[in-house]
Write a structure and sequence with these properties.
Number of domains: 2
Number of strands: 0
Distance between the termini: 92 Å
Oligomer: single chain
Shape: elongated
Radius of gyration: 23 Å
């Protein structure tokens, strides 16, 4: 009997190891749920990753984005801040924190995060578009136009930037420029632009 006992223990241990999902498994599962719009379920998976890998900046950032989508902006900011403390050059954490701060209308603080994110990755066209939103929130219309223009230079088919650039142009009295941008956004497939064209460009 004494020879069989270690074998039984070995089988139980290996089964237990097989039954436990790895941090990578939970991370992939969380991302899949996030993509499906199941943000609360994604957060549960990210929590499991962080139990095993508490200093995994991408997981903290992804969990923060999921919280942001659920409008838990302050909790999201906490996650992004933790990710930045772990990896001060993790661009996505700065850009995501900037968006959460924008959602809280904390525009000045959001601008600092976007500035840092863009310094780290100056070719991220979406970052310029989002910083444009922040500058528009600060009523810096010229600055907003400059950011949207940079986003368009990086991706000439980025319909959101054309759509967004129309508003500060209109506010600065450039109705023709605004209507041109909204027309371009519509031609690229952004249906929302039609509302502005009908309201301001007839």
């Amino acid at each position: 009997m004494t020879k069989i006992l270690p074998l039984i223990l070995l089988i139980l241990v290996s089964f237990s190891a097989l039954a436990q999902k790895s941090a990578k498994d939970y991370f992939i599962s969380g991302n899949d749920k996030f993509k499906a719009g199941k943000y609360a379920e994604a957060i549960k998976d990210y929590n499991e990753v962080l139990k095993q890998e508490p200093k995994h900046a991408p997981t903290l950032t992804n969990r923060g984005v999921a919280k942001d989508r659920l409008h838990n902006y302050r909790e999201a900011i906490e996650d992004f801040t933790k990710a930045i403390a772990i990896d001060p050059k993790y661009t996505e954490a700065y850009l995501s924190r900037g968006l959460a701060k924008y959602n809280l209308k904390d525009y000045r603080s959001a601008l600092l995060d976007y500035n840092k994110g863009i310094d780290l990755d100056p070719k991220d066209y979406k970052a310029y578009n989002n910083r444009g939103l922040v500058r528009y929130g600060l009523r810096d219309f010229s600055g907003a136009i400059a950011d949207y223009t940079t986003a368009i230079a990086l991706d000439p088919k980025y319909e959101q930037a054309y759509y967004n650039r129309g508003a500060p142009k209109y506010n600065l009295g450039d109705k023709a420029g605004a209507c041109s941008d909204w027309s371009k956004a519509k031609s690229l497939g952004l249906k929302e632009a039609d509302l502005y064209l009908k309201k301001y460009c007839q």
